[in-house]
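User: quick one, fold this
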Amino acid sequence: MIILEISNNRRAEIKSCVISVLEEYGQPFVPVKIGNLIRSIPYIKLITYNSQIRKHHITYNELIVDSETADSYAVWNKTQDCYCIYYNDMAPNVVNSNRVRWNLAHELGHVILKHHELCKLHKLFRSGLATNVYNYIEAEADYFAQLLLVPHVVLYAFKVTTEKQLKDLCQISGPAAKNRFRDYKQWIKQINGNDDYDKPLFHYYYNFIYKKHCLTCGASIIQSSGKYCPICGNNTLQWGDGKMKYTTKIVLDQNSKAIRCPVCDNEEISPNGNYCHICGTYIVNQCTNIGDHYDSCGQLAAANARYCIHCGAPTTFF
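Assistant:
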């Protein structure tokens, strides 16, 4: 590793690593719960500076001198093929600025990208590596951290338009937010819904982005469009988790038609008709606001929808 610029191919590899880590160990939530994510990885142990001071009966300054950093570092146990990530949980300038979150994501990047194994070192000391090699692996770890902590698809969905909004949403430090907002503005200029990284990332965060709850009935739903509650029909939806989950045993096909009749349980449904040939029930759930008037709707609805999310009218399943 003698180059300092991260190639496009390597960036694609790092993006793939981020997706894999999120899908296997993460929770679709922003700000990313980085501590929980690391603790869920079986071959990584998370250790605070404070616990090390108490365990080894040393001072804070002695620990900083020994570790060669006031932020964080990772140690590789080659024999057992496991890692320990040590992080500063004591310095106010680190903890209060959310820099500690970036430090943890950065060290996780070193681990996931196998920098210790590539360098054949149990610890990545600046003094133990050539300057260009050290700078390169630091750049890769930072790139991993920014992808992990600042998902552009979530910023876009939440209509983030300022550096402060990004900082508050992702809970990163001011300097980091400044750099990430600059990158985000560049990303928007070339946004691509079919991007090999952004597309799976959007699917990963889909339920988080579109979760809503109704202030009237307390329903908790996943709804990407429409302003009306499908349960009570009121225009009182807010982003976030609700108190109640409305489920149904009715299963619909891609055209919102029941696979089995919800009234008589007939499962011999004709692909050409919308009525049950046993009991005569209309088996397509859709908005009942249908006609020749200018504000007619008729949109298809989810299996548990009792009201149309687009106009608020009752559905056929109501």
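User: anything notable?
Assistant: Residues 1 and 118 are 9 Å apart (CA to CA).
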